[in-house]
User: Fold this.
Amino acid sequence: MIRLCLSFIHASAAFWQRLHSGSRALLGLVLGLSMAMLSGCNILPESPQLTHYELPATRLAPIGSPAPYTLQLLTPYANRTLNTQRILVNPEGHELRAYQGAAWVDTTPALLRERFAQALLDTQLVYALTFSGESGAPELILQTHLYRFQVHYEQGQPVVHLQLNTQLINRQTGKILAVHPIHIQRPVTEGVHLDQVIPVFGQAADEASRELTQWLSHTLQQPHLLEGRPQ
Assistant:
């Protein structure tokens, strides 16, 4: 296709050289046809079509009465490999790959932030919930470091791993009040196709959300929380 386009342009130029110098109207016609043909010549290969996946989620039940705090939820910190829309898999050893032709609808940290936000709203743990950059003066900050959100093959069996560490911080003093690590492992039992793997990612995120909210519910009930030590 490209060779055909270039041949047409060269032929057009040669043709024009044989025309009378006063034929400006014909010049415009030839140049217009040349540009139209050139615009149809795509030199760069087209990008592969991606299928985008949402993270499945299950609503959680309320836990007690809301604590009298405003909590700011931060987007989880992650390294450059995790901070993408790629759906990651570890087939063997320490090599990480991405499922071809597939991506999350947003970056992994953003997906988990939205999942945890929904869990906090479902469980009604705090009086109010804010996000980074929003107005307001929250007393507490929930900060998360994300280490894994990927499939690992273990003896030929795909297993979804979700590993993170959460910290509850006094916003005014910057003191870490409580710390809780979470590591979820959910085997994929229905098959190895991505359509069978995606629901297990959602189950792992649901389980992490339940563990996170249960830990946070217990922590928020501690007396004199804003003066406490990490626990």
Observations:
- The beta strands are 51-53, 67-73, 88-90, 97-98, 102-104, 126-131, 140-154, 157-170, 176-187.
- The longest strand covers residues 140-154.
- Residues 51-227 form a domain with the Rossmann fold fold (CATH 3.40.50.10610).
